Amino acid sequence: MMAKVYTRTGDRGQTSLYTGERVSKGSLRVETYGTIDEVDSVLGSARAFVVHQNVKETIFKIQKDLWLLMADVASLGKEPNIGSDHVKDLEQTIDKYTEELEPLDHFLVPGETQGAAFLDVARAVVRRAERSMWRLSETEEVHESGIRYLNRLSDLCFTLSRYETEVK
């Protein structure tokens, strides 16, 4: 028997969090992990178009982390999957790529390459996810490490976009 993709459990505007609680599909928590899901999709598009293998591998690793971050946002009362070690890893990755780039002395206009353009879209969506997470933190519990992760991830997307454009 074929398993069905649809469950019909959300037809009345409710969805289940990872930990089983039912919430409105319009809740800020659902909005936040939905925006992180958008980041994952845009990064997948970037990965399809970037030309550097090391950038493809970096993006793939981030995509796996984003699933953990979505689980964190969709869970109540659980220890975070994304912690300070993940944030530090992003910082080290940014530093590694930045070492190969010239100092930035001008504004960049997105779109030099397809891969770089998708990375810039990802950067903008990550910033939206971070803003959503901050709004959520005003009324509900969120893990600070997740917010810091998103902040560093936008910097990494910017850095990877530069790398795709500048490194031949």
Give me a quick take on this structure:
By secondary structure, this protein is mostly helical. It is built from 5 helices and 2 strands, in the order ββααααα. The protein has helices spanning 28-49, 53-73, 84-98, 114-137, 144-166; strands spanning 14-16, 22-24.
Radius of gyration: 17 Å
For the termini, the CA-CA separation is 51 Å
Low-confidence segments = none
Q: Please count the helical segments.
A: 5
Helix content: 55-70%
- Give the helices and strands as they follow along the chain: EEHHHHH
Strand order of the largest sheet: 1-2
- Please give the largest β-sheet: 2 strands, antiparallel
SS-derived structural category: mainly alpha
Rough outline: globular
Mean pLDDT comes to 93
What does this structure look like?
It is globular and about 50 Å long. The longest helix has 24 residues, at 114-137. α4 (114-137) packs antiparallel against α5. Helix content is 62%, strand content 4%. The chain has helices at residues 28-49, 53-73, 84-98, 114-137, 144-166, and strands spanning 14-16, 22-24. The mean pLDDT is 93. The chain is mainly alpha-helical and 168 residues long. The chain contains 5 helices and 2 strands, in the order ββααααα. The protein has a two-stranded antiparallel ribbon.
What is the topological layout?
Blueprint: E1 14-16, E2 22-24, H1 28-49, H2 53-73, H3 84-98, H4 114-137, H5 144-166
Antiparallel strand pairs: 1-2
Overview features:
single chain; two-stranded antiparallel sheet; mainly alpha; 4% strand; 5 helices; 62% helix; 168 residues
